[in-house]
Amino acid sequence: MIVSCDSHIINEAYVQMTLSIISAFIGCWTPYFAVHLIHIWTEYQYFIADSVYAFAETLALFNSAINPILYGCFNVHLKRGLVEVCCPLRVRQQVYPSITFISDKT
């Protein structure tokens, strides 16, 4: 099987995206399960502060909020769209380097 350079880069991007999503999942859910398992294994005799519970549960829910951000970071089309919206002058200069736009003159 012949592997081109482009497919290697694409596969590397998928691996990076997958590893980042898995890392985010583990990082967000580990405190939740650790707190609850400690509580259960000690048969509810070990006191865990309510703030620790709140932090662990909030971090677990944060995983749902961070997933779209991670997917967006690895999406080439979204990156291009954000650059076009946030830096329109930069995009125009890359597409039309020899043309001077009226708004470019100061």
Question: How would the blueprint of this fold be written?
Answer:
Blueprint: H1 5-41, H2 50-73, H3 76-86, H4 88-95
Helix pairs in contact: 1-2, 3-4
**Inertia-based shape:** elongated
The radius of gyration over CA amounts to 23 Å
Low-confidence runs (pLDDT<50, min 5 residues)? none
> What is the end-to-end distance?
56 Å
Compute the number of structural domains: 2
The number of distinct β-strands equals 0
The count of helical stretches stands at: 4
Q: Helical content, roughly? A: over 70%
Estimate the mean pLDDT confidence. 82
Structural category is: mainly alpha
Strand content of the residues, in percent? under 5%
Q: What is the helix/strand order? A: HHHH
Sheet with most strands = none
Describe, in short, the structure shown.
The protein is mostly helical. The chain folds into two domains: 1-74; 76-106, no CATH class.
Describe this structure in words.
With 106 residues, the protein is mainly α. The protein has 2 domains: 1-74; 76-106, no CATH class. Helices cover 75% and strands 0% of the residues. The chain is elongated.
Keywords:
4 helices, 75% helix, 106 residues, mainly alpha, elongated
